[in-house]
Structures are given as structure tokens and as C-alpha cells.
From TrEMBL:
InterPro entries: MFS (IPR011701), MFS_dom (IPR020846), MFS_trans_sf (IPR036259), OPA_Antiporter (IPR051337). The keyword Transmembrane helix applies. The lineage of its organism: Bacteria, Bacillati, Actinomycetota, Actinomycetes, Mycobacteriales. It is a multi-pass membrane protein. PROSITE patterns: MFS. This is MFS transporter.
Length: 419
């Protein structure tokens, strides 16, 4: 029972992190009025969130290995609450951008810290499913931003809405401090100080493990398409290029959440029961993403609604599919460096998403703006990322299997060696 309480407390902190991450997305028009900012300036908030989140992953992982989940979850909640209360009170654009960066930093340390709790508190067979459930349930934060937060924003105003989110973050911080414990047997993290050289050497060692890179390329190839679609270019594509109403586009994003939840449960069960088939599941997800996009982009005119539904459902599987990358990190790294490894894995999809968002924006600008043809050209940049990811998965999978086989043979020899 205690394990479930600790995991649930960490999960609450992650739900609040997703809420904080998505509040600006649903308050874009109000933010434009409050800060006198145009669309290009407002897009800076989205890009900044992804940049800070991705760049902070390795430092967050190093801190996680040193200080443990409890400290980082509490610190992350404090940072996000500070950023949100600043947004609630300020009308200065530079200060608001800085506050958003602080929110991104707190968000960056939260997810991997919650994930780290799972293998310490649950049996190995339950870890893949609980990893999936962590990612899935965290998306409830997006629901909170779209419903109660938006209702507060509309009814009570900007300051009240953001102050309410701050209060929820403070609650998560207090609960995490009071209830979370890193492991059942005490705080198993490094206590000795490490020099900069030793830290860099440790980071290099973790990256050179084939399992870490396998997780990185897994996260890269599966997650970026749905992230780009949901965070930036999905709604403009559906409304402008495909001619759907804003309400229908919003409904498709709701379908995306439902599809991700359903797929996550299935993927968690399958990878838990068949751990040696995880990479095949990942490759199948990447292939299905590439195939459905090829079908849609090959059409000379707008796609029928049923095909767009299929597109959204298929790419949404990539979200829970990316969680397999964290399972690879757990399998091929010792507990002492698991945080660093998970941070590296988490960079994969977000770096890819950032590059694709920027590349698509450049292509759309060069093509004269939003149109059916320009979007179809812009979406083709995805194929470069899929190619890199698949090649990376195939190479690192072979190396990881070879390393695992060598370790098994060495362990067998040590078992039967006369003493």
C-alpha cells in the first residue's frame, strides 16, 4: 500500500507539471492581450518550453542520481509554482518569458524523478505497465488546463486562474515532501562530491552504454510526430490544409488522448510480458507512423475525415511507445546512474520535435504561409528523423544484445568457477 501512496503522490506532481506546461496553450489570446504580443512572440513561449525542457534533461538526471526523487520533485514543484505566480502577477513580457523558462525547468526535473520511483517500489514485472500509466495519467494535466483552468480564466480572470494553479503546485510540493521516500531501504544516492571531470566522465559512460542510446533513438522515433502535431502544427494543418472546423480539430485532439491511453495499457502489458520483443514493438510503431503519413500526404486533395481520424489514432500510439525507451534505460543501466540515463532518453523525442517544428516553420514561411501544398511539403521533414531513429535503433539493439549475451556468459562462468 505504501508503494502506491508514494507513486500516486509523485504522479500528482507530474499531473501538475503537465497542467503548468499546457496552461499557456489554452490562454494564448489572453496572453496576447496582457503582454501586447503578436503570434511570433507568443510562439517563443512554446519553443522556449521545449528548449529548456530538452536542455535540462541531462543535468536533471545527474541531480536525480545524486539527490534522489524526493528532493527533485519538491524542487520542481517549487520552481513551477514560482513561475506561475510570477505569470499571475506580472504584465511585463520579458518577465513573463523568464517565468515560462522557470516553469520549463521545474517541468524538466519532475517526470524522470517520478519514473525513478517505480523500479524502487514495485516488482520488475509491474514496472513497464506502471511506467506507461505514469505517462498516461500525467496527461490528465492537459485535461485540467482545458477545462477547470480555462473556466477560471474566462470567469475570474488571468490572475485568479494562474494563482489557483500556483496553489495546486504548492499542494503537490507539500505532499511530495511529506509522503515520498526514494526507496524502501533508505536514500540510495551518491553522497560524495564529484568533480566536473568525474561528472562528465560519468555522463560519457552512461551515453556509451548501448541500452541508453537504444532508449534515446526509441524516444526520438516514436514521440516527435504526435508532439509536433499536438503542440504546434496539428490544429493549423487540420483547419487550413484539411478544411476542418476548429471544433472538429479539437475533437480529434481528444481522440488522440483516448488513443494514447488505450495504446499505453496494451504496450505496457505486452512489453512487460515479452521484454525481448520491445524493439520490435517500437519499430512497428515507427513504421505505422511513416505509413499513415505517406498515405495522407500522397493524396492530391483533402483527406476524408475517417482517414484523418486514423492518422491521429496511429500517431498517438507514438506517445506511449516512447515510454519503452525509459524501460531500455532501466534494463541496461545500474540504479546509481539511472536518472542520467532517463534524462538522456527523454531528450530524444523533444530534440527531434524541436527540430521538426522549426524546420516546418521555415518551410511554411518559404512557401508563402499556410496552405494545403505548403503543409504537405513541410510534413515530409519527418522522414529524415524516422530514418535516423530506425538506423540508430538497429545498430544499438545489436550492440545491446551482444553486451547482454557477454554478461550472461561471464555470469555463468563465475557461477561454475571452482573456489
Amino acid at each position: 500500500m505504501r508503494a502506491w501512496v508514494i507513486w500516486s503522490t509523485g504522479l500528482l506532481a507530474y499531473i501538475v507539471a503537465v497542467l503548468d506546461r499546457t496552461t499557456l496553450g489554452v490562454s494564448g489570446l489572453e496572453a496576447a492581450d496582457r503582454f501586447a504580443a503578436g503570434p511570433s512572440v507568443l510562439s517563443t513561449f512554446v519553443v522556449l518550453q521545449v528548449v529548456v525542457y530538452a536542455c535540462a534533461q541531462v543535468p536533471a538526471g545527474i541531480l536525480l542520481d545524486r539527490y534522489g526523487s524526493r528532493v527533485l520533485i519538491v524542487a520542481g514543484a517549487a520552481l513551477m509554482a514560482t513561475g506561475q505566480i510570477t505569470l499571475a502577477l506580472t504584465s511585463s513580457l520579458p518577465l513573463a518569458i523568464g517565468a515560462r523558462a522557470v516553469v520549463g525547468l521545474g517541468d524538466a526535473v519532475t517526470f524522470i524523478s517520478v519514473l525513478r520511483l517505480v523500479p524502487h517500489w514495485f516488482p520488475p514485472k509491474q514496472v513497464p505497465l506502471l511506467t506507461q500509466l505514469t505517462g498516461i495519467c500525467g496527461q490528465l494535466g492537459q485535461v485540467l488546463s482545458a477545462l477547470p483552468f480555462l473556466a477560471l480564466l474566462t470567469g475570474a480572470g488571468w490572475a485568479t486562474a494562474y494563482a489557483s494553479v500556483t496553489a495546486l503546485g504548492a499542494l503537490a510540493m507539500v505532499l511530495a515532501f511529506a509522503l515520498i521516500k526514494d526507496t524502501p531501504h533508505g536514500r540510495k544516492v551518491a553522497t560524495e562530491a564529484m568533480t566536473v571531470r568525474a561528472t562528465l566522465s560519468s555522463v560519457k559512460t552512461v551515453w556509451l552504454r548501448p541500452g541508453t542510446r537504444l532508449g534515446f533513438f526509441t524516444h526520438m522515433g516514436t514521440q516527435f510526430s504526435v508532439t509536433v502535431f499536438a503542440l504546434m502544427w496539428g490544429v493549423p494543418y487540420l483547419t487550413v490544409a484539411q478544411g476542418l472546423s476548429t471544433a472538429t480539430a479539437g475533437a480529434l485532439l481528444t481522440v488522440s488522448v483516448v488513443a494514447a491511453i488505450s495504446a499505453g495499457i496494451v504496450i505496457g502489458i505486452v512489453t512487460g510480458r515479452l521484454p525481448h520483443r520491445r524493439s520490435r514493438v517500437v519499430l512497428l510503431i515507427i513504421a505505422s507512423n511513416a505509413i499513415i503519413w505517406t498515405v495522407v500526404l500522397a493524396l492530391p486533395s483533402r483527406a476524408p475525415l475517417w482517414l484523418l481520424v486514423v492518422l491521429v489514432v496511429v500517431i498517438s500510439v507514438g506517445g506511449p511507445g516512447s515510454m519503452v525507451g525509459f524501460d531500455f534505460a532501466r534494463t541496461f543501466n545500474p540504479s546509481s546512474t539511472l536518472g542520467t540515463a532517463q534524462g538522456m532518453v527523454n531528450m530524444g523525442g523533444f530534440l527531434a520535435a524541436l527540430m521538426v517544428m522549426q524546420a516546418m516553420g521555415a518551410i511554411l514561411d518559404a512557401s508563402g504561409g499556410y496552405s494545403f501544398d505548403s503543409f504537405h511539403v513541410a510534413w515530409t521533414v519527418q522522414y529524415a528523423v524516422w530514418t535516423i531513429a530506425v538506423v540508430g535503433i538497429l545498430i544499438t539493439r545489436r550492440k545491446a544484445r551482444r553486451l547482454m549475451k557477454a554478461e550472461q556468459e561471464r555470469s555463468l562462468l563465475e557461477t561454475f568457477e571452482p573456489r
